[in-house]
Design brief:
Blueprint lengths: L1 H10 L2 H62 L16
């Protein structure tokens, strides 16, 4: 397929080669611009991902703190439940 394209370009009149070259240059410019936009978008998404990961860490930490407070509030009326040596008589 590439060989056929080369053959077509070499047999085309000089004006056609110039037009084709201009089209290719314009397309290359558009592709570079699109690549730049995609790279910028990727950077934004990476930054957003880092922010979400930090937020998730903070939320997990808060959840752990709440869990500890809840456990402590239930354990206070029954301190013997926190002990490793539980006797049937204490229950």
């Amino acid at each position: 397929m590439l060989q056929a394209e080369r053959d077509r370009q070499t047999t085309a009149p000089p004006a056609m080669n110039g037009e084709r070259q201009a089209e290719m240059l314009a397309e290359a410019k558009l592709l570079r611009q699109h690549k730049g936009r995609l790279e910028t978008r990727m950077k934004i998404l990476e930054d957003h991902n880092k922010q979400l990961e930090a937020q998730l860490r903070r939320l997990r930490h808060l959840l752990e703190q709440v869990f500890i407070v809840i456990l402590n509030s239930y354990a206070m009326p029954y301190p013997h439940l926190l002990s490793r040596n539980i006797n049937a008589g204490k229950l």
